[in-house]
Backbone:
C-alpha cells in the first residue's frame, strides 16, 4: 500500500537547512520518531506540529500538504 504524504516536514526541514537529528534534539524526541514523521509513516500530534512550526519560524500550514485537488 502506498503511503499518502500528509506532511511536508522533510521538505520544510531541507528548505531551512535543518536535519531530523536537529529537530529531535530541539523537541526532546527520539530521532526514530522524527524520521517516521518525515517519511509519513506516522504523523506528529497537532501540539508537535505547532512546536515544529515555531522552531522553523513557519506557519503550521506549511508543514501540511493541501487536501484540495488541483484539477
Residues:
Amino acid at each position: 500500500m502506498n503511503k499518502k504524504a500528509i506532511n511536508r516536514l522533510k521538505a520544510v526541514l531541507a528548505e531551512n537547512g535543518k536535519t531530523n537529528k536537529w529537530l529531535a534534539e530541539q523537541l526532546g524526541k527520539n530521532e526514530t520518531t522524527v524520521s517516521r514523521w518525515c517519511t509519513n509513516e506516522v504523523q506528529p500530534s497537532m501540539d508537535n506540529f505547532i512546536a515544529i512550526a515555531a522552531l522553523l519560524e513557519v506557519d503550521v500550514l506549511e508543514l501540511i500538504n493541501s487536501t484540495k485537488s488541483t484539477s
The radius of gyration is 12 Å. The chain is about 50% helix and 0% strand. The longest helix spans residues 46-56.
